[in-house]
Specification:
mainly alpha, about 150 residues, single chain
Length: about 150
């Protein structure tokens, strides 16, 4: 993998912090990263370190630019960020959209989506889900991403 995960996450973190719009190139790279495997997808959860609202806005723009497995994973992350931000209805919409896309992409791993859907249905508090951000930061740091 080389520097691809570190560079991609670092660039997206800068977009989140700057409240910028991710380029099509960055969105494609983030989508690929999210689709490659669950650990790399989970590293993207670290973006909530910079605030769930801004992370949600950036990831929603990414999700709108990708398709297939990448769209499922980025919509799942988008929903999680909305949930962390206390916007359960928006999270549910993102999860429903991710589930719809997953039905047309059967190779999609939906473990995170499944867990988050159960959490929202069971009324699990967003702060309990926030532990996933810590796990994402740990994974991202192992990839060489630095957090300020």
């Amino acid at each position: 993998m080389g520097d691809f995960p570190r560079t991609t996450i670092t660039e997206l973190a800068a977009v989140v912090q700057g409240r910028e719009t991710p380029s099509a190139d960055l969105a494609a790279r983030v989508g690929l990263l999210a689709a490659i495997n669950p650990a790399l997808r989970d590293a993207l959860l670290s973006l909530a370190h910079y605030g769930a609202t801004d992370a949600h806005a950036a990831m929603l723009l990414v999700a709108n630019q990708v398709r297939g497995v990448a769209r499922v994973q980025t919509l799942t992350i988008t929903g999680m960020f909305a949930y962390l931000d206390g916007r359960g209805a928006e999270a549910g919409i993102a999860f429903d959209a991710a589930r719809d896309v997953a039905e047309t992409a059967p190779e999609t791993h939906t473990g995170l989506l499944d867990m988050l859907e159960i959490a929202i249905q069971d009324g699990i508090r967003p702060d309990a889900i926030a532990r996933l951000v810590t796990i994402g930061v740990d994974i991202a740091e192992k990839l060489g991403v630095e957090f300020n």
